[in-house]
Amino acid sequence: MPLRQALKRMGTREREYNYNLPLSVPSIAMARGPKKHLKRVAAPKHWMNRLKYALTGDEVKKICIQRFIKIDGKVRTDITYPAGFMDVISIDKTRENFRLIYDTKGRFAVHRITPEEAKYKLCKVRKNIVVNDTIQIDLETGKITEFIKFDTGNLCMVTGDANLGTIGVITNRKRHPGSFDVVHVKDANGNSFATWLSNIFVIGKGNKAWISLPRGKGIRLTIAEERDKRLAAKQSSG
User: Fold this and answer.
1) Is-contact 182 170, C-beta < 8 A?
2) How many CB atoms lie within 10 A of CB 25?
3) Quick one: which H or E segment has residue 193?
4) What whole-number distance in Å separates Cα of residue 160 and Cα of residue 166?
5) Total number of domains in the chain
6) Full-model pTM
């Protein structure tokens, strides 16, 4: 008797079975080791179409194959090569340079910089020199040219938590043995907040930043302040 008829006689619902499936599923060997490409997580939409030079994947491949794109001074032809916080992206054909930083809404901002600023980047020291200090690296030689101590009174950018992208001055640091150290920061408007030590990236000595700042200067506005700013812009333009 065919299996389909036998199942019907036993009262089993036919739609619960798929008769086209093989009895055994062959195992698939997955490659091991770290991967740079973001494979299994969908990339956010706000990462796309920032410069409007390429709107499709084929256009991206054509641009990269022609060796037009440099990241930190090195030509990159792999379209899956990752670029992150503080990386410098250079396009020699258009003579443009950009730095990837955060805006006050926690999104990546492609910030246009000068050719002089494109020669270096800032890095956060994790295991060498002193932990949490910031170093300045020459992108041509790869050598450390200068560094900033993680001290009270220096300018910093928040790289995590709810205040991601906010820029302010370190006012206090509280140590909590066995837990997370907390750092207090005050922005240019006088607003103070606290965050974990791991979320702090020092970007300047005192109030002077070592990199050019994006539009808004890292000041996080409230919803009411953003509304008032939009209304004022409409009234001035109208």
Assistant:
1) no
2) 7
3) strand 192-196
4) 10
5) 1
6) 0.61
Sign of CA dihedral 103, 108, 112, 117: positive
Q: What is the CATH number of the domain that holds 81?
A: 2.30.30.30
Question: In a 3-state reduction of DSSP, which class is residue 174?
Answer: strand
* Closest alpha carbon to 117 in 154, 83, 140, 88: 88
Which two structure tokens, joined as six digits, stand for 119?
Answer: 């020669």
* Whether the Cβ atoms of residue 147 and residue 129 lie closer than 8 Å to each other: yes
Residue-number span of the structural domain to which 126 is assigned? 47-223
Phi first, then psi: give them for residue 144, nearest 5 degrees.
-80, 125
Q: What percent of the chain has pLDDT over 90?
A: 36
pLDDT tens sequence across 185-237: 999 989 999 999 999 999 999 989 999 998 888 888 888 988 998 998 888 88
In a domain, 133, yes or no: yes
Q: Strands 155-158 and 108-113, how do they pair?
A: unpaired
**Cα 15 from chain centroid (whole Å):** 47
* 40 located within any domain: no
Residue 181 lies in a domain: yes
Dist CA 173 CA 206 (whole Å): 16
Backbone angles phi, psi at 100, to 5 degrees: -85, 115
By CB atoms closer than 10 A (0-12, 13-18, 19+), residue 23 is: exposed
Q: Is residue 11 assigned to a domain?
A: no
**Four-residue CA torsion sign, 155, 157, 158, 163:** positive
Q: How buried is residue 134: exposed, middle or buried, by Cβ count under 10 Å (0-12/13-18/19+)?
A: buried
Q: What is the pLDDT of residues 57-102, one digit of tens each?
A: 899 899 999 999 999 999 999 988 888 899 999 999 999 999 999 8
